[in-house]
Write a structure and sequence with these properties.
The protein is an all-beta fold and 135 residues long. The protein has a single domain, classed as UDP N-Acetylglucosamine Acyltransferase, domain 1 (3 Solenoid), CATH 2.160.10.10. Strand 10 and strand 11 form a beta hairpin.
């Protein structure tokens, strides 16, 4: 169904039926990725979920904000990129313009407003680096 609305969906990608997706033609899901129960993919800007990446239940990927520097607060559509083999844990929030690197882990309920480097674990609100994982 997502493909009919313009999403690019890789082989064996799994999207739970309760996932909410806005503007699916700006969504790219890599092969074998998974998007869990009640996740929200708010694709005002492009959202890319990499191969074998996981977006867990209740996570919220929000690719839009407003420019507060301007009085009329225009909409800003900033992309989100989740790298291959990354894991966005339950109820985490990924803000606009964020890249989560390959193999990185975002802890449950974390709020991510800055890029996460490859193979780093981040957690908290705001998200802070915990440690880098071994290969």
């Amino acid at each position: 169904m997502l493909r009919r609305f313009g999403a690019r969906v890789g082989a064996e990608a799994h999207v739970h039926p309760s996932v909410r997706i806005a503007i699916p033609w700006k969504l790219t899901l890599g092969a074998q990725c998974a998007v869990g129960d009640r996740a929200v993919l708010y694709a005002l800007g492009p959202i890319t979920v990499g191969t074998r990446a996981t977006v867990s239940q209740g996570a919220h990927l929000c690719a839009g904000t407003h420019d507060l520097a301007l009085q009329h607060r225009p909409l800003v559509k900033a992309p989100i990129s989740i790298g291959a083999d990354a894991w966005i844990a339950a109820d985490a929030f990924i803000g606009p313009g964020v890249t989560v690197g390959t193999g990185a882990v975002v802890g449950a309920r974390a709020v991510v407003t800055k890029d996460v480097a490859e193979r780093w674990i981040v957690a908290g609100n705001p998200a802070r680096p915990i440690r880098k994982m071994e290969k």
